[in-house]
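Re: the 333-residue chain
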Amino acid sequence: MQPIYLAYLNRLDIEELKITDDEILAAIEASLASQGRGETVIEPRVHLEPGVANGHFNVLRGAIREPIDAAGVKVVGDFVDNYKQGLPSELAVLLLFDPRTGIPKAILDASGITDMRTGAVTAIGAKYLARKNSKILGHIGARGTAYWNVRLLDRLFDFDEIRVHSRRPESRNAFADRLAHDLGKPVVATEDWQSCVEGADIVVEASRLNEPTPLLKTDWIKPGAFVVPYGTMSAVELSLTDIMAKLVVDDWGQCKGGKFGSLRAHVETGRLSEATLHAELGQIVAGLKPGRESDDETNLFWHRGLSLSDIALGHAMLAKAERLGIGQRLRFA
């Protein structure tokens, strides 16, 4: 048998790549279009709960035929109390394979990939479903993915006002300071949910709750706003979907099942179903379904996280690493 080698990119390698906002957005938008055209395979994520801590593992699986031609599996831990040990709540590994032979092609630290691709999916959702002149962002949550939500949304919309909130004052203040420094504009850390969300053109809810609690009130949502709730535990009221013109998800197969997710109760009560679902985002990106059609629409996008996004961004990082000579080459067999 011929020797088999695989690429390895650790966190330091990925930081050295200095992948740009536009490179991230382009990779994710292309993968969504591939999904919409039916050029991908995606299986619903599965969960592993070790039962020894406040957290679980997500296992995401998928393949993209065109134009990437790769299969992938990502395992990401989601452990709420990691901050007490100075660790991020989400640590992840991405494995990429040749879909024709099963040969492993790469191992990547996917903690950063998870954050980046989540933010990019949020931003691409807003590109197609939010008002083009959206100028106020209200963001709940300050975990790793939150930074990329705000950064990539601002890349597309150049907000006049950015508000952020999270449960711990030290967390939300540090988050606002980091964003203000990196974006070069003021970012306001609010003391409560209402002052963060009310009147915002785009609302992102990425809270970290221990159990479902309806902290985001439907009455606070501005007519014509775009809302993205994606916390693991629901923080929204059942009435939220009642005010929406369009309900969009990333992958209906994932959203309609499982025990976690912001709109789990909405699925279980029939408020979100195949009958009420407007589209998957990929169908909109591919031009098969319409996105926002008027400024009057109040739209919602729920994303659980796509293995396809991990594969696409991992592939883009590998291609850039090869061009720049970054990373390591490991002997597999």
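The chain is about 30% helix and 25% strand.
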